[in-house]
Amino acid sequence: MGVTGEIEARRPDSRDDAMPPAGAPIAASRLVTLAGVAKRFANGTLALDGFDLAIGSGEFVSLLGPSGCGKSTALRLIAGLGEPTRGSIAWSGTSGTTSGATWRGRRRNGLDVGFVFQDPTLMPWATVLRNVMLPLELEGVAPGAAARRAADALDRVGLAAFRDAYPRELSGGMKMRVSIARALVTDPPLLLMDEPFAALDEITRFKLNNDLVELWRAVGHTVVFVTHSVFESVYLSSRIVVMSPRPGRVFTELAVDAPYPRDESFRTSAEYAGSCRIASQALARAMAQERPGEPAASPP
Amino acid sequence: MSAADPPPGRPAIAVEWRRIVLPIATLALGILAWDLVVRIKEIPPYQLPGPGVVAATLVSDWSLLRNSLLVTLMTTFEGLALALVGGAGLAVLFNQSRVIENCFYPYAVILQVTPVVAIAPLLLIYLPQPAAVLVCAWIVAFFPILANTTLGLNSVDRNLVDLFEIYGASRLAVLTRLKLPAALPYMLGGLKIAGGLALIGAVVAEISAGSAGAGSGLAYRIAESGYRLNIPRMFAALILLSIAGIVIFFALSLVSHLLLRRWHESAIVGE
After folding, report:
1. CB-CB neighbours of B113 under 10 Å
2. Min CA distance, B173 vs chain A (Å)?
3. pTM higher than 0.90 for the full model?
4. Shortest CA gap B10–chain A (Å)
5. In chain B, how many domains are there?
6. Least CB-CB distance to B163: which of A80, A121, A126?
7. What is the ipTM score, two decimals?
8. Which domain holds residue B27?
9. Which of residues 180-219 of A touch B (CB under 8 A)?
């Protein structure tokens, strides 16, 4: 059985848990810790409430949940985009524990992150190489060195031959590879991915899933991967964080201990199917808690 | 793909030819009809000169008309250049400061919606004529650039803005590396509209100055020739104005195409 079961079955309203459970399968050191984080948007929507999550160095964590459960909001907060309304976020190796208006952006907390959006989010006026160079240039790296490192990053995602192409000349999957190369070019310890493959066809998605796992194992960085696909989360992750919606919080966490490397044979294995079933059931229960007290929909 | 695609078996060049040859044929037919009407009805040149007379006037009055054409073109380009600097500059300023935008944007709109033909006589009272003509060209030309550039600066991909924030980009870097390139296609669209408008603004001001003016632009020649009943010269000057407008439009289209051809959908011909 690939999923060892629920590590922790916290009550959905246990908002005063300051920290995630001690039993969470966290590797050597914690990279990011979110404690009691709430996020309310200007329009009054409470996207997250009592959200606790600890991310260990070297993990591949998926945030799994239905649309609108606040998983993207959580990812953006981890990236340093926006501030939590309540609660705190701590980044390791920095003085940046913060819970308020004192802090904004990655520069203030010092943790280098790479971010991959759902869309490739490339600059259409710049070549592939210039797009990948952007993070380095914004950090003040000299153009020559930036170009070399960008070329290396493109090589890693298999697009070395397309450095002088413009984004519009690439397919959807290739654009996403450029986006991943750009996120990796600064060698960040933490890679944040917001449903990066949701818009791609399944064949391309499978290929990119394989490549992403390979890349993660080669580079050894930490990945937080937002998805609404049970299958994708099981295939990729070492740990799945199942979120319940409105306001978003951690419903339960699942460890996927199928060994890496995972490849197409894993995708068709009984172990994979069993893990997907457990994750699907957890997701269904998380969604059923959307409105506590209201009975599940049943025929009259 | 569009209907303009060549049917199979026929080279694309044939379609290109048709696009050039057909309008020229239409023009030739029109000129022929004009000539026939004037000859058959025996219309005197002071009522409606035939195309031959107009062409002869273009040649005989060429040195006068050429100088006027240069004056009008110079005014148009100066007005357009100032409009580009003013319109794009103001758009950037508005984009950087909401307060400045709130203070001045309504007046930019008012300046635009007030007909320039009504403003020109006042300007001619307070300014020397060349300056008044230039200001008129600027007034009508700057707003499309301002409005389009503003739209472009506000149309930046939100995710790209977030990306720049993640990497701690300065305000200046966001402006120069993200907002300005993103706004460029919009600004060039505004510039294309503004080119024709700058010519119109210059012409309106010269006409307003009329015979009292000391100007020497093409529109002034039209007004002057009208008073003198020199109808062939009016036509000749009018034709030069049309050609000037067409040349300005195509020149700006070419600039736009050269700047955008590698990346923007508007400048990419079907593949």
Report:
1. 8
2. 8
3. no
4. 28
5. 2
6. A121
7. 0.80
8. 1-42
9. 186
